[in-house]
DNA sequence: CGCCAACTTGATGGCTGTCAAGTCAGGTGG
DNA sequence: CCACCTGACTTGACAGCCATCAAGTTGGCG
């Protein structure tokens, strides 16, 4: 039996737990597979489970044996230094994969924490490897997903290495907006799942700086912000901010 | 015929161009393969070529069809913003792979530039995929290499997001030292292949800041620096610097 | 209603960027 | 062989962005 859906969402979604029915299959691992191949992937994705807000999906140092596809919800991944400093390495939403970092050493190298009640599909990695030896499309798509993660990380390095505070936040908002759009949500009206501190950690800023930048964007009419509720009023304005020369 | 080795190195090295003879095979893609599998990989690595200092191995936007293993030499990869800002995303040395970013979109997303006369082995990607469908060990190792790249990027994000200038530079030097060690070179005495500006771009700092940090490390007896020649005098000191709390 | 976490806003300071001048090393040409 | 040139590097003075510290506000929840 499929696991229950959390809180608000209704039975229709509960039924569609197989990859073949999942409305995220164009964003997720199944992309490009035939009907028959999809059925085989369904067998592979054995475990679907719920992760409550605040719970760890996995922890740094823990043994790696599966990657995870997000069916619904929102996660962050972070790395902790011995001295307590935290770096958020990413925010993940429905259709995205978690755990790729663990392949390297067979142990996870970061923590994955749900920022809202979420549902994930566990994909045993050794089985994914053997199936992708048989299904060319799956193999190639998996490689693309890993590569995309590398490219994404380069983007974050760019952001952290060369951009000023307001440019970073503008880039962050535009990125979120674009990913919400790809999932059928409004590009201009959404709720942040993370705190100012988590945004700051991701962007290499302190929470006060994030807060001030939000206020400034609002004063200048680029966005309307009320706590975690964001409305983007001027996409072009944000893009201009993002590309502004340093000084 | 194998390509000529550049400058200083001698004939013995020239002969060993096949993966099966390459002294980097424990660091590179062949790791863990049997003799017979190695022979097959040799067939795959069709092209070996030289890239002179300053030349591009590939450019952002260029078509992707192969990944590259570095036989000898030193590279940097970087991303350029429209407004001219540069972010160096990595420095690569012998035995490391270049071009993984291109799998995602079938186009390279960064530039790869030789920082000294180098030699690379081109590995056609579609052939690598089909061979890794047959050789389990190769498949798994390739996945590990991609994952390691993701983990490395997280480390850089940590560095850029949470560390101060001197911590970043200490971490950078220790990382270089460790990679030289793995290749049989001195951990404590080496030449930098990149300029202060390139180090700065990688670390999210200006070249003057890098220069000042080098000078400070020298004053404090952690290193001896003379232009590009670095001698590490106090590894523990650098490690302590790296882990120092912010303020 | 009170509590607490999350957030906002202000005042101040410091790290690092910016600007500028000078030094060093290597290569070229006379 | 040496003067010259150029790119890379070093060092100093100053400034600005963002961190830090602090106080107050908001919203959610028991």
From TrEMBL, chains A, B:
Cited Gene3D superfamilies: Jelly Rolls, Winged helix-like DNA-binding domain superfamily/Winged helix DNA-binding domain
Keywords: DNA-binding, Transcription, Transcription regulation
Ranges where the Cyclic nucleotide-binding domain occurs: 29-99
A family per Pfam: HTH_Crp_2
KW Transport (keyword) present: no
Any GO CC annotation of this UniProt entry: cytosol
Entries under PROSITE patterns matching the protein: CNMP_BINDING_3, HTH_CRP_2
Keyword ATP-binding part of the UniProt annotation: no
Alphabetized InterPro entries for the sequence: cNMP-bd_dom, cNMP-bd_dom_sf, Env_Response_Regulators, HTH_CRP, RmlC-like_jellyroll, WH-like_DNA-bd_sf, WH_DNA-bd_sf
Residues of the HTH crp-type domain: 163-236
GO molecular function, one term: DNA binding
Classification via SUPFAM superfamilies: cAMP-binding domain-like, Winged helix' DNA-binding domain
Entry protein name: Fumarate/nitrate reduction transcriptional regulator Fnr
Lineage: Bacteria, Pseudomonadati, Pseudomonadota, Betaproteobacteria, Rhodocyclales
